[in-house]
Specification:
Two copies of one chain form a homodimer. Chain A has helices spanning 20-34, 42-51, 53-61, 70-81, 94-101, 113-121, 134-144, 154-157, 164-174, 188-196, 231-237; strands at 8-11, 125-130, 152-153, 181-185, 200-203, 226-227. In chain A, strand 4, helix 10 (188-196) and strand 5 (200-203) form a beta-alpha-beta unit. Helix content of chain A is 44%, strand content 10%. Chain A is built from eleven helices and six strands. In chain A, helix 1 packs across helix 2 (42-51) and helix 6 (113-121) runs parallel beside helix 11. The N and C termini of chain A lie close together (5 Å). The first copy, chain A, has a six-stranded parallel sheet. Chain A is α/β, with parallel strands linked by helices. The A-B interface holds A 71, 125, 133-135, 137-138, 141-142, 148-152, 155-156, 173-175 and B 71, 125, 133-135, 137-138, 141-142, 148-152, 155-156, 173-175.
């Protein structure tokens, strides 16, 4: 059986479990219309918002800023990008900005995700190992029926991927050796960082995460322990 | 509706959701037989083990010791009590002690607990706010089908109840005001500490937690927001 000895499957979430781009665009569209930016492509808005994701975490990974949960970073990044789209953040009610920030709590899973996770959960612990914070992951899961056994990730580890602490503190909380844990991700760099910490690795490509013209992460760049087309196939591969 | 405006129910677990005394006794019995202590009452052994629970946490609450997860404290306490029962810990294989320590991961819910939680989960977030650590709560839930939305508690808050930080950091992680959260507990002192932090309170007595001769926590000592006979009644009371 693939992944013999693995007791917990931990998942990247943004892009791997859920479609962040489509979900943020869906939530941004009425906001843009309400604030006089109806000509803006909501998907371009989602991409711009996401573009500040990694730089914001880099402030924390580098030690320049203490650990700060992703909801706070998303909120700051939202205010930062609005002027690019012709919207003065000071002209928008705070409650409307807070509400739009919750777009990230309302992302839809890819069509195979909930069914696959439900099957995977029968034999192993399943938990997110995302840079998203606990209430973000919790709201998202409750809205769409993602059956996590626990919410792990950056806020529990107090470290953002791909810092080794994000993976190793997750193993510590689970009281498992790294090789008893497998990261499932659609991103080769996440898997490489997990492997460097001793975790097992499963690649599930999500070739439209960045839209139809996506050029990255279309294929496995490493000899990951498992490569599966979606979570249903992953569940089939992991059955004895 | 009782608890109007409450978005999350957080639960004490040992005694409130699960029967720790019966579960630890059940797991201890074969251990005691194997190690020449078959005349020992396993329930007395469970009580002795539990008696060191609060003093061990007090070392951490007082600041004399850094935060240490409950599995580690339970393991230390186990070695501390074995001589009282005529067992030299050095004579027992480490693997047998490690295994017995997992007794706390295998406690059975009270008969109403899973059905009640499943109903409560339909309308609100449900999560443990226990002093038990994440993998302890996770193993327990997975074994018996407790449908938590997330595993919160001392390890996430890095503080043991009844320290205010245990309640307030849980509210912070949930991004909620304290009054949007209700603690459900069988222990008046836990509810009093939660109320002092602004949380709402629900008392569900568990009159046999300490056995048939229990004298404590048989009744509500405060005017808690809700008092219910069990989790099914609690779910009925909280429906609109």
């Amino acid at each position: 059986m693939a992944l013999d000895g693995v007791r917990a499957l931990v998942f990247d979430v943004f892009g791997t479990v859920v479609d962040w781009r489509g979900g943020v665009a869906r939530e941004a569209e009425p906001f843009l219309e309400r604030h006089g930016a109806e000509e803006i492509n909501p998907t371009a808005f989602a991409d711009a918002w996401r573009r500040l994701y990694s730089p914001a975490m880099e402030e924390i990974r580098s030690g320049r800023r203490p650990f700060t949960r992703l909801d706070v970073l998303h909120r700051e990044n939202l205010e930062a990008i609005l002027p690019e789209f012709g919207i003065d953040p000071a002209s928008v009610p705070v409650s409307a900005l807070d509400e739009l920030n919750l777009a990230w709590h309302r992302l839809d899973p890819w069509p195979d995700a909930v069914a696959g996770l439900t099957r995977l959960k029968a034999r192993r612990i399943i938990a997110p190992l995302s840079n998203g914070n606990i209430i973000l992951m919790l709201d998202m899961a409750k809205r769409s029926g993602i059956p996590w056994d626990a919410i792990l990730g950056a806020e529990v580890a107090q470290a953002y991927k791909p810092m080794p602490e994000a993976y190793l503190r997750t193993a510590d909380v689970l009281a498992m050796r790294p090789e008893e844990i497998c990261l499932v991700a659609a991103h080769n760099d996440d898997l490489a960082a997990a492997r460097a910490c001793g975790l097992r690795t499963a690649f599930v490509p999500r070739p439209t995460e960045h839209g139809p013209a996506q050029t990255t992460d279309l294929h496995a760049d490493g000899d990951w322990d498992v490569v599966a087309g979606d979570f249903i196939e992953l569940a089939e591969r992991l059955q004895s």
